[in-house]
Amino acid sequence: MQNITVKPHREFSPADKPSPLMSIYNGEKKEYYEPVKASYDKKKKIFSLTFSNNSKAQISIAFQEKYFKFTLLSLSDCKDIEDIQWGHYHTNITNLMGELIGVARDTSEVVNYAIGMLALDDNTLGGTSETIGDAAPFQYVIHSPDTKRFPLPDNLHEGQIFTLGGNGISDVAFYAHKEPYYRIMYGDAAQVDKEGRISISYHSRDRSSRREVFFSLIPNMEANVPNHLDVEPLPGIGYIGSSVAFWGSPDSIALLDVIQDIVLQEKLPYPTMNGRWVKDPAAFVPDAMTAGNLNDSIISYTHRLGFKAISLYDQGFLRPDRGNGGYIDGKDFERKPIKMTAGNKSHKEFSEMAAKYGIMIGRTPITNSLAPGTLDASPVPSDSLSYQQKRMLMNDMEPGDTIILVDDPKYMEEIASWEGHCVDLNMIKIGKELIHYLGVSDEEPYRLLNVKRGYWNTTPSKHHKGNTVYKLQVTINYGYDGLIPNMQLQDKIAEYYADVCRINGLAYYDFDGQEFLFNTGHGYYGAKRFFRKMFERGKQVGVPYIRFTGATLSEGSWHYQSIWNVGGGKNLYDADTREWGSTTSQGKDLRDVTFANFFPVGMGGNFPIKENSTVEQYEHIQAISVGVGTTYSLILNQKDVESCPQKEAIFNVIRTWEDARAANAFPRWVKKELSDPAKSWKLETGKDNDTWLLYPIVEGKKADPVLLKRAPGY
Predict the structure, then answer these.
(1) 385 has which bridge partners?
(2) What values do phi and psi take at 463, rounded to 5?
(3) Please, what sign has the CA dihedral across residues 423, 429, 434, 438?
(4) With CB atoms 3.0 to 4.6 Å apart as the test, which of 183, 302, 376, 505 could cross-link to 288 if both were Cys?
(5) Residues near 5 by Cβ (< 8 Å), separated by ≥ 6?
């Protein structure tokens, strides 16, 4: 793998680590088979590979202007082959690893090169064939992006794995290492070896057959031990047709010149903001986040700031309830939850007010958590719920009976979910009744223990020997309580969210509990499918764009997700101490993940305008935002904003920076300067709307300015 734009050509393929074009994987034996023979039909542009188990693959290769396109056409003798893997494609790059989308990046001025992959179909996922549950473990890996600046201590080595911090429950405490060589991992499409060299891979699984996984997204923690999941078969979803784009280019142009080209050429999801792809740094823009539930001026504030979305965060959680048909304020919009002095408004009324200024509004849902009291959960639970285990009832039961005998006790002692293992969510479903239990007897007859009938207000009923007992897959407590839908019902929930947008005028979601999309055992495929269904339904009903953030970012959501403003405050970026997370390492960790994966860095819900807020604070916040390439959710409490003497000047500062950013007026070298938290700046509008003057602040005074100009096409 060579960069032929320089002389001598720079070689990126390590001589000691050959890269197989494709490997195949036996899931039962947990064994890879690599190719041992290859031939190429130049006329048909087809590779024929023979593997060590005698399977034979036909792979087409399309030579596009800026990438190769590989597609698996056929695989013989594949009865025992559960998964195919593109790569690993090994590189000698040791700088930044993009573990979500599979990219190895050297951002130095000397090398300036990146090599990466993208999946071209939903069932091809970033990662490896052996990734349990198709969602990589959430953990730390030791990797220094620059061994001269950040040398490893003697007790650590490249590629070493560490679990997260905290108790496994508090998501803030997960982030426990501020050292730059502790790299938190949100995927495994990129990996590092003991020398710090980065490899990339994608894979595709046969989902048509029954299989069982032993899954936890956060393994090695008592609060998140793995559970055994009987994964739902999905007929017709397999690896034949798996396709990837493989590319290499100067890192400085990789995103907008190459990756964007692949996305457009292959018709991958391409959400836009202000007419620009949401991955274009000129399209990055903060959002408003409401607090205090008084909204007289929130739309005006947002418009004056140049923002395009309002997160109605103080309205609490929005739970998916198909029983309301998408009418979250009632069929006649009779509920008016959005408080205003002149009269409260429904979501629809408020969205119509915002739309006059080109502003969208939105809410925070608990993604696919089916809460008690909603249509698909209770008092009549759906038959399309995800389950961990399926057993047979071995006795007849009357409505008052608490003796439940099952044919097999295996794994029935596990507390449901892989996360939190909340005992009050440990339940089974028989017919249309939910039943709580804890534990199972050791000897025959195998009896479920500590039984509570008619759980979640379901109706205790007669059940008969031979009925199916489903041990349900669930979420966690803390307001997230719910059941997980199976894939077919999840499709309907995704469509429901699009309908909520159409009916109520919403176009923004903060998908809390987004990791619940992995709970079926289908991992990133489940996330891809969910967002594809939501966007397809949105387009069908006239909602062309749904801006969303959420609790996580994965290869499954990368194309669809606009921003990742998770958490906030001093955990993400402390504007007073000027550091990425002064209380935890969350800011540093999430910055490293997003930046390496060509995604907008998030600063969370942050920087509330209050009585003592100053212009200088927001000059700094905006300089970092533009320099690093971040978005954030600006907390706006109307009473606090009105108490600030510098309110007008702060609004003007933010708007000036945002206008210049949207004009793509900041060249690469200027952004590098702006990203240094130790430096201070002041930005002023020039003589017209196409120029700006950027002043370095030295010892409290303005130095000679840099003239910035609107970029062509912006």
Answers:
(1) 485
(2) -135, 150
(3) negative
(4) 302
(5) 250
